[in-house]
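Our example pasted here:


***
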Amino acid sequence: MLKTIWQKDDEYYKLKDLTDEAVQCAEEILKVKLPASYVALLKEQNGGSLNDKSFPTNVPTSWADNHVHVDHIWGIGEKHSILNSEYLINEWGLPQNIVLFSGEGHSWIAFDYRKLKENPPIIYIEADSELVIELAPNFGALLNGLYTEEETGHDELFFEQDKRVWTYEELKVAFLTNIEQEIIPALDYLYFNPAGNERFIEESVILLLQSSILGIKELAVTYGNEFLEKEILSSMAVKKIVLLIRNDSEIKYYEEMYFRNFVQ
């Protein structure tokens, strides 16, 4: 492990430097002994996005037939932290006696303390299908098994989308398709080209939050949070977004995860 696994140009999940006192406090709150390899990693950096994001499996999952996606590892702190485990377990109906350290929405990765009190195995959970599989015998094995999935023929399409200049009409059409693969490139374009598009961005996020399709609402929440982090959204828009999230039982938990520091 002993290479740096953190993606240095993305600090979204990175928390302030970890102290021994914070580790002890977390273990007392969670009532577990955290793996030494996990604590050592957090001493290097307290959570963050990963360079290598795939881990092999022998069981098909919602990601692929042969791997799962591990985008990030949570540290110990307030936002994006293992200390949110109890809330998320109850909200999503996940197994008890686990500690979540990665995931968002319908798939999660956790320390499994159901049988072992120390150095637990690592499990992958899909909330909708109730799939639970063991990924690795311990945290160190998970880190050592991470790899980058090779792209297969999509590079040219990606670069074409990256260079594309969207019109408002094209963006509106994409947002009305109810197809996630159409909506994501449009949101990406707005994320990288916010200047002059602020009002349209606000209206689009609010529109997508009112979709009847859960995946699209989750996209709207995720990108809404990204726009908020970039200080693109007005306070009025944030209040409307939070109200929509709060009143929707399928996505209401995101208010606590993303927006609790911005709206009273």
